[in-house]
Amino acid sequence: MSRPRGGDQGQVLSSLVAVAAVVAIVAGLLVLFGTRGHDSQADEKPAGASTPKSSAGKPSSGPSTVGASVPKPTEKPSATQTTEPIRPSAAPSKVPTTEPTEPPSTEPTEPPASTQPPQPSAPVTIPAEERPAIEVYNNTPRKGLADTVAGRARQAGWTVSGSPDNWHGKVAESTVYYPPGMLDAANQLARDLGIGRTKGALDNMKKDRLTVILTSDYAG
Question: Residue 155 and residue 97: Cα distance in Å, rounded?
Answer without folding.
Answer: 80
